[in-house]
Amino acid sequence: MEEIRIECPDIFDYEQCLAYLKRDENEVLFDIVDDKIYRAIKIDDIKLLLSISYERHYLIVEILNDISISPENTERLVNFIEEWFDFSADLSLFYQYGRKNEILEPLINELYGLRLIRIPDFFEAISWGIIGQQINLTFAYQLKKRLVESYGEKMTFENKSYYIHPTVDVISKITVKELMDLKFSRRKAEYLIDVAKIIHSQMLTKDMLLNMEDKVEIEKTLVNIRGIGPWAAHYVMMRSIGVKNAFPIGDVGLQNALKAILNLEQKPSKEQMIALNKGWEMWSSYATFYIWRAPYIKK
DNA sequence: AACCAGGTACCTA
DNA sequence: TAGGTACATGGT
């Protein structure tokens, strides 16, 4: 069996990352058993079933479905994992900056080593951004589960099923009614299928956004698409594009977490959010990710 | 039983 | 430009 070892960055806590990944029972794109992550992915059209575990500062990646892959594909696989766990970020810089902020300082201590878990698959990130709009996370996970199980590719290993997120190729060809049958609202069904068509036609690609210098330009490009507003644009920028200073200002979860941390009577206003963001501006994405975790820190 | 969920597009004035 | 509303459904 192939085994790949990936060295972790200095500041890295596998348990913190796992805790985030475990946040919902209905997650379908990976499974966690005994601190080992199981996930199906597709690389260069080859389906792989991976297990990922941690051992003395290395991630150990095993390919369970008895396939040997080329050196190029091994590199692609390593890139995927490193992107998923955001290994390229220099957390020492975030911490140095964030410790000066009274909201972030305790979070950095509690969550030390947590990395911003990314969504490398661009369409998966947009899909999740559209699904998550306005509804509670429980329902959002249910919708995603139905979408993935209906239209994603399935792998079976030792009597368990693993799914790969549906491709734009598949989703661009389905109907609004099919998604409404999965309890998507008509609007969300339209948004998702339309975005799939746009990406499928290459009018929008992840590379296109990665090559843009300016955050504002990326945001404008995303917001221009029906179904992606300011919140979803920033969400995709932080989770998939790797923008360091994205800030989903309208995010209710973020607002409620800040309300609790600051002991406010009401959720912070847009103006308050903008003011708070000044305290971590260069690192808004990480600040957001850490604040999202705040309600789950056990005292 | 209302009201709120990791919002957005669309309508009116 | 600003303000109001529908949207599908689950949790509290």
UniProtKB/TrEMBL annotation:
Reactions this protein catalyses: Hydrolysis of alkylated DNA, releasing 3-methyladenine, 3-methylguanine, 7-methylguanine and 7-methyladenine
Keyword annotations of the record: DNA damage, DNA repair, Hydrolase
Highest taxon in the source lineage: Bacteria
Gene3D superfamilies: DNA-3-methyladenine glycosylase AlkA, N-terminal domain (3.30.310.20), Helix-hairpin-Helix base-excision DNA repair enzymes (C-terminal) (1.10.1670.10), Hypothetical protein, domain 2 (1.10.340.30)
Annotated HhH-GPD domain residues: 131-296
InterPro entries: AlkA_N_sf, Alkylbase_DNA_Glycosylase/TA, DNA_glycosylase, HhH-GPD_domain, HhH_base_excis_C, OGG_N
Enzyme Commission number(s): 3.2.2.21
Protein name in UniProt: DNA-3-methyladenine glycosylase II
Organism from which the protein derives: Mammaliicoccus fleurettii
